[in-house]
Structure formats: C-alpha cells, structure tokens
User: Which sequence fits this backbone?
C-alpha cells in the first residue's frame, strides 16, 4: 500500500522564496519521514516526525503532521539553489516503508 | 563512521542474464532494506532484512531475491533480467528497521538491461 504521495509533482520557485510540499498517506503510521534526493543519488534523511507530534522544526525546515487527515507538509523557508532536488515523504507503519514519487523542486537563482 | 556502500555503482546486462548487487550497511545497523527506483514507478520497496531474516517483502516477482549475512551485509539478486528491470537500486540501513527511524541510503547501483 502506498504510504506516501507527494503533491505537487513539480515546483519551481525563485531563490529566497518559501517552498511547500504536501504528502498524504493511507494507513496508520508510527512516524513520517522526509527525504531529499539529488539527481541520481541516494536519499538523504531530512526530518522525522512521530505520530504524536504535530509540528517539528529543523533549521529552515518545518514539518507538520495531521494524523486525522493523514497528511503532512514540508516547508522550506528562504530557499537556495542548493535546495534543488526531489523530496520524498514516507510513512512508517508496518515493517514496510513505502515512498511516493516525490516532488521535484527547482530553485531558480 | 563510514556510510552505506553499494557495489557496483553502474552495470550493464543483457536480457536473460542475472545480476547480484551488494550493500554494506553502517556498522552496527542490523536492518537493510532495498528499493527500486524508476522514472515511471518512483521508489518502490523490494524487501527488508533484519538480523539475517527477511522481515518484509514488496510486490515484486520471485526473480527478485535477497539475503543478509551475519555481518549485516546484504545482497540482492535479479534473475532472468528483463528490460523493465533497468533502474536505480538503492539500499538503506537502519538500527531498528524501516518502521522505527531514520534510514541511511547508499548512492545506489544503476542497472541498465539491454
């Protein structure tokens, strides 16, 4: 079962703007994680939010989780060209961790 | 400490052949999970091994198999390769497993099937 569907599929913004990505999942989770992937590389863990948390911050990242709506959002503030990458969310419930197809973020200098 | 190491990084095979990919997790991590990434299907879970036991398996045919050794290193094998198996294969290691916390990914093995 898909435990991470990101929206939008692609997002293009100017450097300095904020970028918001959304994620929906289908079944109950223990935690939800966001990852970044630069083109053709491995995924890098950004932030984990547990099911009993509603919001979490890490540097320029802010993640929210709404378990009643089975959704999460990732906000990147003051974006930089180096933030250009694909972003994936994944909900961990059972042992199977699944990802969506990602949001491709392009930050234009 | 050293990260997750995947070998080989790139390989080219022909249809019908088989391939074995290797993944060395971070020292102390007992969980290794494998993923297939393609432009069309995105990132899909293949299987997870924890302390040498397959703990979960994704929706892939039996041509895809794996194993984990006592030192936590893992291999995955794909037999009778098809064109559609061309993909980036990623492995990830974690302390407690995919349902607990952070996954650490390798750089992937890019397989091209001709």
Assistant:
């Amino acid at each position: 079962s898909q435990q991470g569907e990101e929206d939008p599929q692609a997002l293009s913004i100017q450097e300095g703007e904020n970028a918001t990505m959304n994620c929906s999942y289908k079944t109950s989770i223990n935690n939800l994680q966001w990852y970044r992937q630069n083109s053709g590389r491995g995924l890098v863990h950004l932030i984990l939010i547990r099911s009993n948390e509603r919001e979490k911050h890490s540097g320029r990242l802010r993640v929210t989780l709404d378990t009643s709506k089975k959704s999460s959002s990732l906000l990147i503030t003051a974006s930089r060209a180096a933030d250009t990458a694909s972003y994936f969310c994944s909900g961990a419930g059972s042992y199977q961790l699944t990802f969506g197809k990602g949001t491709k973020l392009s930050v234009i200098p | 400490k050293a990260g997750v190491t995947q070998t080989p990084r790139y390989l080219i095979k022909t249809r019908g052949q088989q391939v074995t990919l290797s993944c060395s997790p971070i020292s102390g991590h007992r969980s290794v999970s494998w993923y297939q990434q393609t432009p069309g299907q995105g990132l899909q879970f293949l299987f997870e091994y924890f302390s040498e036991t397959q703990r979960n398996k994704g929706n892939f045919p039996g041509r895809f198999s794996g194993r984990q050794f006592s030192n936590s290193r893992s291999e995955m094998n794909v037999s009778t390769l098809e064109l559609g198996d061309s993909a980036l294969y990623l492995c990830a290691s974690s302390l407690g497993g995919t349902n607990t916390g952070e996954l650490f990914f390798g750089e992937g093995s890019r397989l091209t099937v001709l």
